[in-house]
């Protein structure tokens, strides 16, 4: 039976929103995620929508428990982000956010690769707007780099899809077998999942987004990638280690980072690493882990970006070296941020604890000792930066006499709701576990697990306390793989664009000069002929005076005849010959 | 702010070892070798924290950290 795909609700909302009165738009924004949420609850496992297009059967929607779990959290963060951004008056951002969320849902529920590709590209374009809408030169440049990287990824995806469909004769999106097409598709999914060395776009662009835009950005692109990896590449061993490398990589780079939102962006890479590892493990327990961690990650990372965004909104600063001593003026933002920080660090009673341990447990079940230990190490680094360093140097730390602007109540309200959901999941993990694609037998709250976690994190805190003088931000940027396209860019620009520009400019100048000379010559053809062809000077008195009005009709007639012949010949060629 | 005196660190370690002794004594089976080591997670957290900072700082100082206008020398320091 065909039913309305949830993506359509949000995309329809994006169409409708600009037509509504301006004051009602940010409230109306909330309506569409709510509708999509209701629709998701109403749809059943296994429902689908198909459409015949050319010679293909496109599966616009295919619902199962895996896509449904992602779908719920996507509409949830769209709603929470919408509440957080109730004060936003930029319709462009609201529309872009709805299109972005809608196309992400489209990817989740796409049953065939062409539908997936179309939504994939819409996602890339819509999300760019959330970056450039900050309207600074830096964000414009970062947004363009983001767009180029994703268009490249999209191109590789299309190539992979075409190759795959020719090889297998099917465009359905299911688990891939090894083959050239599958590798290309894996490349493009890995790019969106930000697996190093394909990750640099994330840390480059997310911190440049608008305050509310980055909340949406942190949720959708990487998590749709986790979903498509889980659907298409579950159990590919390569992903286990790719994920572990991500988890550690993000943590190491976060040490060096000075911009608070870039620090959080590096931790997205780290956290998505857990999910990618779980996808690589590929067991039912691991896929549950990837899904659960994606679910809570979207919620706590959204909250963290909301908290950092609140600081940016209030102080118009986002660098650790320029922040400090905000605990007195922004205490509520601090406490709500800390809920997110405890969640991402996996403290008991917070959402990260119950989801991260599912991933680690899945690795334990496979007896991957090195993987388990390295994931613990990533947890240590996560708490160190998101839980200790960032809040310490932003809210405590050196006083800088900042005079923060008031934060709109809507931002606080969005943060409170998100924080409440994080705590609810942490306290009552069944809420989350019941949504998972497979039954969850794991119990996170055992004495030893809680004890181990507390020991791990408390002693991380001790280490932080010892080295606190060394950990303050430095006014630097960190080289990353974006070096490979940012540094050679000026040279490439000179080679391709500047040189072509020069050529065109020369050609234009030459043709203009030619036209000028011709115009001069034909302004008085009799004089010109006399001077140039017969070498007669102007002084001779017997020359005929040229009167343009007199000669216009015969010249016009000649041109008319020539053009008519031309038209006649063309028509002859086209229709008769 | 003042550093915590060494005694607090020692106290935390003793507490965590005691907790390990009680829990490990009670459960008596181990899935991995580290589950039997008293204080493993405390030590792992502490050393892991130091190692992460050390590795990153060395990488940063020797190679990765550059001035803020590295990519666009014309951009002025804000």
Structural notes for this entry:
Chain A folds into 2 domains: 134-476, no CATH class; 489-576, no CATH class. Chain A has 577 residues and is an all-alpha fold. In chain A, 71% of the residues lie in helices and 3% in strands. Chain A has a two-stranded antiparallel sheet with strand order 1-2. In chain A, strand 1 (48-53) and strand 2 form a beta hairpin. The radius of gyration of chain A is 31 Å and the shape is elongated. In chain A, helix 4 packs antiparallel against helix 5. Chain B has 78 residues and is mainly alpha-helical. Chain B has one domain (6-64). Chain B is 60% helix and 4% strand. Chain B starts with 5 loop residues before the first helix and ends in an 11-residue tail after the last strand. At the A-B interface, helix 10, helix 15, helix 18 and strand 3 of A face helix 1, helix 2 and strand 1 of B.
């Amino acid at each position: 039976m065909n039913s309305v795909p949830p993506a359509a609700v949000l995309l329809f909302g994006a169409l409708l929103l600009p037509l509504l009165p301006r004051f009602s738009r940010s409230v109306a924004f909330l309506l569409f995620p709510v509708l999509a949420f209701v629709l998701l609850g109403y749809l059943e496992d296994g429902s689908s929508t198909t459409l015949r297009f050319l010679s293909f059967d496109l599966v616009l929607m295919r619902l199962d428990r895996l896509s449904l779990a992602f779908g719920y959290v996507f509409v949830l963060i769209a709603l929470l982000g919408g509440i957080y951004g109730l004060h936003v008056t930029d319709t462009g951002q609201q529309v872009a956010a709805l299109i972005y969320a809608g196309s992400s849902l489209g990817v989740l529920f796409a049953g065939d690769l062409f539908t997936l590709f179309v939504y994939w590209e819409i996602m890339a374009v819509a999300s760019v707007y959330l970056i450039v809408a900050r309207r600074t030169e830096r964000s414009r440049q970062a947004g363009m780099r983001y767009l180029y990287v994703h268009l490249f990824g999209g191109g590789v995806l299309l190539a992979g899809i075409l190759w795959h469909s020719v090889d297998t004769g099917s465009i359905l999106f299911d688990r891939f077998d090894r083959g050239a097409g599958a590798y290309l598709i894996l490349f493009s999914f890995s790019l969106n999942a930000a697996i190093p060395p394909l990750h640099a776009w994330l840390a480059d662009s997310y911190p440049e987004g608008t305050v509310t835009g980055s909340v949406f950005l942190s949720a959708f692109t990487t998590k749709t990638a986790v979903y498509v990896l889980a659907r298409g590449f579950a159990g590919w061993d390569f992903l286990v280690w790719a994920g572990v490398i991500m988890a550690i990589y993000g943590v190491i780079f976060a040490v060096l980072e000075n911009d608070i939102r870039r620090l959080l962006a590096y931790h997205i890479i780290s956290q998505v690493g857990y999910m990618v590892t779980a996808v690589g493990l590929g067991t039912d327990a691991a896929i549950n882990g990837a899904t659960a961690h994606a679910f809570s990650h979207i919620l706590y990372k959204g909250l963290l970006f909301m908290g950092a965004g609140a600081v940016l909104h209030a102080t118009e600063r986002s660098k650790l070296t320029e922040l400090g001593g905000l605990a007195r003026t922004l205490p509520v933002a601090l406490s709500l941020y800390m809920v997110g920080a405890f969640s991402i660090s996996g403290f008991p009673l917070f959402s990260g604890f119950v989801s991260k341990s599912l991933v680690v447990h899945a690795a334990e079940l496979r007896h991957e000792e090195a993987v388990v230990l390295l994931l613990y190490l990533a947890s240590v680094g996560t708490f160190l930066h998101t839980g200790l360093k960032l809040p310490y140097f932003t809210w405590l730390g050196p006083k800088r006499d900042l005079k923060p602007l008031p934060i709109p109540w809507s931002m606080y309200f969005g943060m409170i709701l998100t924080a409440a959901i994080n705590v609810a999941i942490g306290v009552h993990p069944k809420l989350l576990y019941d949504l998972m694609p497979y039954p969850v037998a794991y119990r996170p709250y055992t004495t030893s697990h809680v004890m181990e976690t507390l020991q791990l994190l408390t002693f991380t805190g001790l280490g932080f306390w010892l080295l606190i003088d060394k950990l303050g931000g430095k006014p630097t940027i960190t080289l990353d793989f974006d070096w490979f396209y940012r540094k050679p860019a000026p040279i490439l620009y000179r080679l391709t664009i500047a040189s072509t520009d020069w050529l065109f400019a020369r050609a234009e100048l030459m043709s203009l000069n030619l036209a000028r000379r011709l115009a001069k010559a034909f302004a008085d053809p009799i004089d010109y002929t006399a001077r140039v062809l017969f070498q007669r000077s102007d002084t001779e008195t017997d020359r005929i005076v040229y009167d343009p009005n007199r000669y216009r009709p015969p010249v016009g007639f000649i041109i008319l005849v020539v053009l008519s012949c031309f038209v006649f010949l063309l028509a002859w060629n086209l229709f008769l010959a | 702010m003042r550093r915590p005196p060494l005694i607090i660190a020692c106290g935390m370690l003793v507490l965590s070892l005691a907790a390990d002794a009680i829990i490990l004594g009670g459960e008596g089976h181990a899935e991995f070798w580290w589950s039997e080591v008293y204080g493993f997670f405390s030590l792992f957290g502490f050393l892991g924290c130091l190692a992460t900072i050390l590795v990153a700082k060395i990488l940063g100082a020797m190679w990765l950290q550059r001035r803020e206008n590295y990519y666009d020398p014309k951009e002025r320091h804000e």
